[in-house]
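anyone seen this seq b4? input:
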Amino acid sequence: MPSLFSRKPAEPAVEDAPTPEPEDVAARARSYTPSKKDQGKVTPKRAQGGRKVEPPPANRREAMKRQRDKQRLARLENRQGMMDGKDEYLPRRDKGPERSLARDVVDARRNVASYFIPVAFILLIGTTTNVATVKFAANLLTFAMIAAVIVDSYLLTRRLKKAMHAKFPKTPARLHYSYAILRSLSIRKWRIPGPKVKLGQKI
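predicted toks r here
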């Protein structure tokens, strides 16, 4: 039994918390990531009501209608992507910066080949007539048109070679000659992908 006059055991001294070193404080300040509010950025508010979930179709007819609408929108998106020249929507033969340059070279000039199809159709009608003079003139103009297309296609390939050598010196330009000539044969408004440059624009 402890004596009434005995001393109480001394209470353990409370150690003071260690004072953070200045280096630790500086490290914490550097590691602090300011919030968007501190940076002055405005965070867009989420639309009320949450994500809208499309209700299930009431019947089979409505389900088929929704499927057709989705397919139609996908086709429109693909066609618009092709007209804009986006690589992810283009077929393999049209992909790549070299093919894009070839299209720009063709679209920036007036090509004789672009008039070949409509003119050839008119001349074809002339060659079927029974009038000898008209028939002779139509045949003569047909050969003249073919010669003009050949000469103009040669000039097109020279221009394409020059542009390709300036932008893609390691790519043989002859690999894209036929692609450019085939594009020049189509009317400007019918070309896919659509022209991105204006007539006369320097490439």
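The CA atoms of residues 110 and 131 lie 34 Å apart. The first helix runs from residue 22 to 31. kinda curious what u guys think
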